[in-house]
């Protein structure tokens, strides 16, 4: 199994996809982190407080949580990890070398977990490079091991990893690479966003992968639609684990049962 996982990672890391998506993800996250840091502590035109000041724990919690917004990039990586096999017909050779398709899918899923964790760590390192100096220069106390910060960090790692598995499962269902990517983007930026932010839909939205991820980090941000309806952290963790199992089963069963041609 270790050899199969290594082979799956080699397939990814010998392409330009992994570093292109990594750079895009870091640019996207960096822009969000930089914007929030720039406006931190600035009052709105009505005199109300906006983003918490850089010397507060609330600012640190908010900035650490921004990495969750990068899930679309790890999802695309997961989609391509699966659909590229069919697009370039490497799946035939893969199954000839390893006839037991279930082992191949398991290796791909494990490789996806490794990729998700690596992308998550890169996101957290970028966030740390901004938030730590910003807090120190503002005279605040940097908190890394309390006030819910470790839970938020783990939530970012879990979300980015889960969406790799989501991408693999989606790619197994929709073999057309462009179609799968478009479908995934529509889900993340349209459907999931509406379910998570519109109060009448939040009862459903909190059970989606994105809603569960937001519940796990549990940073309540006023979006202008009122306070978000979130799951307890333990329930959010259980939901994310459940989705990981579902996506893995979808990828496994679809690949095992379908004709590869």
TrEMBL record:
Q: Where are the transmembrane segments?
A: 17-42, 62-84, 105-132, 152-173, 180-198, 231-251
Q: Which UniProt keywords apply?
A: Membrane, Transmembrane, Transmembrane helix
The record ties this protein, via Pfam families, to: ABC2_membrane_4 (PF12730)
Keyword presence, Transmembrane helix: yes
Name of the protein this chain belongs to: ABC-2 family transporter protein
**Which lineage do the record's taxonomy fields give for this organism?**
Bacteria, Bacillati, Actinomycetota, Actinomycetes, Streptosporangiales
């Amino acid at each position: 199994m270790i050899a199969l996982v290594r082979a799956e990672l080699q397939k990814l890391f010998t392409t330009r996809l992994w570093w292109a998506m990594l750079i895009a993800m870091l640019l996207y996250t960096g822009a969000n982190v930089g914007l929030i840091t720039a406006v931190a502590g600035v009052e709105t035109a009505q005199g109300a407080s906006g983003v918490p000041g850089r010397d507060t724990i609330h600012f640190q919690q908010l900035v650490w949580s921004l990495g969750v917004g990068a899930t679309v990039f790890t999802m695309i990586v997961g989609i391509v990890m699966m659909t590229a096999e069919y697009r370039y017909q490497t799946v035939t050779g893969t199954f000839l070398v390893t006839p037991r398709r279930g082992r191949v899918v398991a290796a791909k899923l494990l490789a996806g977990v490794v990729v998700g964790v690596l992308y998550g760590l890169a996101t957290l390192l970028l966030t740390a490079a901004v938030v730590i100096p910003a807090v120190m220069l503002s005279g605040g106390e940097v908190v890394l091991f309390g006030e819910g910060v470790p839970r938020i960090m783990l939530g970012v790692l879990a979300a980015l990893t889960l969406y790799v598995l989501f991408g693999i499962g989606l790619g197994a269902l929709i073999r057309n690479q462009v179609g799968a990517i478009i479908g995934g983007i529509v889900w993340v930026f349209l459907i999931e966003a509406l379910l998570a932010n519109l109060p009448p839909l939040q009862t459903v939205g909190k059970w989606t992968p994105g809603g569960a991820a937001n519940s796990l980090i549990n940073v309540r941000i006023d979006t202008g639609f009122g306070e978000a309806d979130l799951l307890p952290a333990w329930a959010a963790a259980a939901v994310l684990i459940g989705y990981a199992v579902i996506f893995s089963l979808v990828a496994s069963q679809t690949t095992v049962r379908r004709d590869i041609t």
